[in-house]
Write a structure and sequence with these properties.
single chain, 400 residues, alpha+beta, 6-stranded mixed β-sheet, 40% helix, 20% strand
C-alpha cells in the first residue's frame, strides 16, 4: 500500500510502498539494523565523552572512527558501509538540533532531546540508503550487500529517487519510502479565502460552514475492541525473564492492528478534508496551534482522538503541493479579539463559554467561528465586512 506523496520544504516528496520480504532478505535487514544500532550507540558514547572533555564531536571525527571500528570488527565489515554512514549523519543531525535548541533558549517542552542509546526491543527499525547504496532493476529494489526486495508498485514513481528509507512498522510489515524531486500540481484559482480554528468538539471550525470538520471519533468507536485486546495482553503478560507466550503475542498483534487502523482512518479523514479545502480556496489562514499541552488536561483522550496535529500537517502539505497561499497565525488572544471590529476583550473567556459577544460592536457569534474569522484578519486576508484588524496582533508566518 502506498502513502500519498508527502511534499517536503526543500522541494522533495516521499512516496511509500509496501515490500514483500523473503526470509533471507529479512535476516539480512535485521543484521544491518543491528550493526547500525551498534554504530548509533557508539556515537552516543563518543559524543558524551567529548562533551565531558569539552571537545566537539561532529560527522567528520565520527566517520573516521567508523573506519577504525570496521577495521577492528569483522562482523561490522560484513555489513554495508552506506547505512552505517547514514546512521552517523542521522545522529549528528539530531545532536546538532538538540544543541541548537539549548543555545537558542527554547523551553524544555519544545526542545529536541539529546540522542539516547537505542535498545533492541524498543528502537524502531530504520535503514537509510543514498543513491549509491541502492538501485531499481526489473521492478525490484536492490540494496547494498546483495539484499533484494520486491516492491508492491501501487503507482509509478514520478522521477528517479535520490534516497530510500527501509522501515518496519509494529505489525512487522516492511515499507520503502523513496525521496524524489517534488512536482508541483497547481490548482485553478478560485479567489476564495478561508480561516481555520482548531478545537476539540470540532476538529476544525472554519469561516465556511460547509468546510467545518467534525470530530470523527475514530478512536472512540474502536475503544471497546482495543480495551478487550489490552485485557487479553494483561492476562497473558509473561513474567520477567520469561519468553512471551503465543497467546500474548497474538493479543499484542491484534491491539497493534487496531491502533494502526485508527491511525489510517484519521489520516484518510484529514487528507480528504485538506484536499477539499485547498481545492476551493486560494488563501488559507490557519491557527498555528500546538496541542501538546492538551495531553496533560482532562481533554487528553478526546484531543488525541481529534488528531489536530496530523490534520494540520496534512493541510500544510496539501497546500504546498498545490501551490496555495497558507499562512500560520499565532493563536495568542484569538478568543479575546472580535472578528468583526477587531476590539479585544478585557478578560479571557472561560472554556465553558461557547458564545462570543463583542462589547464594542455588539457582534454575537459562536466562539470558534469568531476565532476562525480572527485568523483571516490577522493573516491580512480580511473577509467582506471587516473594517480593520488589530495593528498590534501577533506575527504571521507563511507555511507554503
Amino acid at each position: 500500500m502506498a502513502a500519498a506523496g508527502e511534499v517536503g520544504e526543500a522541494g522533495y516528496a516521499r512516496y511509500s510502498y509496501r515490500l514483500r520480504v523473503s526470509s533471507t532478505a529479512q535476516l539480512a535487514l535485521l543484521s544491518e539494523w543491528d550493526r547500525g544500532r551498534w554504530v548509533w550507540n557508539q556515537c552516543v558514547a563518543e559524543s558524551r565523552a567529548a562533551h565531558t572533555a569539552g571537545e566537539k564531536c561532529g560527522f567528520v571525527p565520527l566517520a573516521k572512527m567508523l573506519t577504525g571500528w570496521r577495521s577492528k570488527h569483522e562482523w561490522l565489515r560484513q555489513g554495508g558501509c552506506m547505512p552505517q554512514q547514514q546512521t552517523i549523519r542521522d545522529f549528528t543531525k539530531a545532536h546538532s538540533k538538540a544543541l541548537k535548541d539549548v543555545k537558542t533558549g527554547l523551553p524544555m517542552r519544545r526542545r529536541a532531546g539529546m540522542p539516547q542509546f537505542k535498545k533492541k526491543d524498543l528502537a524502531s527499525l530504520t535503514l537509510n540508503y543514498t543513491r549509491r547504496g541502492f538501485r531499481l532493476k526489473d521492478g525490484r529494489l536492490h540494496l547494498g550487500g546483495g539484499i533484494r526486495l520486491t516492491v508492491v508498485w501501487s503507482r509509478d514513481l514520478p522521477a528517479d529517487p535520490s534516497s530510500v528509507r527501509i522501515y518496519q512498522d509494529n505489525l512487522g510489515h516492511w515499507y520503502a519510502s523513496f525521496v524524489v524531486q517534488a512536482e508541483g500540481q497547481p490548482l485553478p484559482e478560485t479567489g476564495g479565502a478561508i480561516g481555520i480554528d482548531w478545537g476539540v468538539k470540532e476538529t476544525a471550525t472554519t469561516t465556511s460552514d460547509a468546510h467545518d470538520l467534525r470530530h470523527p471519533e475514530h478512536g472512540k468507536k474502536t475503544a471497546g475492541k482495543v480495551a478487550r485486546y489490552q485485557r487479553m495482553m494483561a492476562r497473558r503478560r509473561p513474567k520477567p525473564g520469561r519468553a512471551a507466550s503465543k497467546g500474548y503475542r497474538t493479543a499484542k498483534r491484534l491491539a497493534a492492528k487496531a491502533h494502526k487502523k485508527i491511525a489510517r482512518q484519521r489520516q484518510d479523514t484529514a487528507r480528504k478534508w485538506a484536499k477539499r479545502v485547498v481545492t476551493e480556496f486560494d488563501q488559507i489562514a490557519v491557527e498555528d496551534f500546538r496541542p501538546r499541552f492538551l495531553a496533560k488536561s482532562t481533554m487528553a483522550r478526546k484531543a488525541a482522538d481529534a488528531a489536530i496535529s496530523a490534520t494540520k500537517h496534512e493541510l500544510i502539505n496539501m497546500a504546498r503541493k498545490h501551490a496555495r497561499d497558507l499562512r500560520l497565525v499565532n493563536p495568542a488572544h484569538t478568543t479575546m479579539d472580535c472578528g468583526r471590529c477587531g476590539a479585544r476583550a478585557k478578560h479571557a473567556l472561560p472554556l465553558s463559554e461557547r458564545t462570543y459577544t463583542c462589547t464594542a460592536c455588539g457582534a454575537v457569534s459562536p466562539r470558534d467561528k469568531n476565532s476562525a474569522r480572527v485568523m483571516l484578519v490577522r493573516a491580512g486576508l480580511n473577509p467582506a465586512g471587516v473594517d480593520r484588524g488589530r495593528p498590534d496582533g501577533p506575527p504571521v508566518r507563511r507555511a507554503a
